[in-house]
Amino acid sequence: TAVPTITLNDGHAIPQLGFGVFKVDPAETERIVTDALEVGYRHIDTARIYGNEAGVGRAIADSGIARDDLFITTKLWNDDQGTQSTFDAFERSLEQLGLDTVDLYLIHWPAPANDRFVEAWKALEKIRETGRARSIGVSNFTVPYMTRLLAETDVVPAVNQIELHPAHQQPETAALCAANGIKLEAWGPLGQGKYNLFELPEVTAPAAAHGKTPAQVVIRWHLQQGNIVFPKSNNRARMAENFNVFDFELSPAEQQAITGLEREGRVSAHPDDVN
Ligand code: NAD
Fold it and tell me: Which residue range is the domain that position 132 belongs to?
């Protein structure tokens, strides 16, 4: 089944389901991403700080898949925020990936202690002008950071990649993004395995009803919410499981019940505290 695409505010299309490589061992990344590409994923989400861009690049190069059929995201690390330092970091990421362009380049965290995210964004605007990053966006931008960015810069981010799963949906950030045509990318879409998401009746009941797994139900919920999502797994069978979510649909009541699990249940760091 073809993965649906979402059209971003700059006109580019992004596959709504991808594969994330946070905490994928650099020594194993080539094999794991090769598995993901064989399973059918065409959208890969990496970052400079993951240390595995080179492995992603080797898997891409060896895959024989046309560059235009792939969607590759990487991210600017906090220490590299600035002007020239952002340009340099972007070049290093391209080099590591072995690519001439990335499809999406993100500011990884606002890193407020540095107070350089506005400057970094202006550098991303320039990078976009060169065409070497087709789209640009941000990550972990809560309402205050997003508000300031929108007020002080010209290009509206294409996406905001935030921690987003049933217990933590960040409704204020989501509303601000929706009002400004910014698509949401959900990181930690399965809650990073850090709470009992797969045992909650709101998830297990539709899983039983549709003959799917709890993980498939949660991924399906994201897709029906309109989120862009890239669950991570080192395990090829789970990669295939997570990709096999286009042969069923949650009813509005099932969807609503999962949305009702919101409880400000952040499982990872608050963006104010990551510098
Ligand atoms: P995730 O919610 O995708 O959880 C991954 C974990 O869930 C795996 O380690 C695995 O143990 C488990 N899992 C995966 N598939 C499963 C299945 N079918 N059944 C049971 N368990 C399963 O968490 P994540 O990896 O943190 O998030 C996904 C991606 O988001 C990352 O790989 C990365 O690309 C991105 N991310 C971005 C940021 C950011 O700051 N921008 C932060 C974290 C993650």
Answer: 5-194+225-247
Chunked mean pLDDT (size 10), the chain, 275 residues = 93 98 98 98 98 98 98 98 98 98 98 97 98 98 98 98 98 98 98 98 98 98 98 98 98 98 98 98
- Dihedral sign of CA atoms 79, 26, 273, 118 in order: positive
State whether ipTM is beyond 0.95. Answer: yes
Single pTM value for the model: 0.99
Rounded CA separation 226/42 (Å): 18
Q: Which residues are catalytic?
A: 50
Number of compact structural domains in the chain = 1
SS3 of residue 71 by DSSP: strand
Does the C-beta of 169 come closer than 6 Å to ligand 1?
no
Q: How far is the CA of 154 from the centre of ligand 1 (A)?
A: 32
Is the beta carbon of 36 within 6 A of some atom in ligand 1?
Answer: no
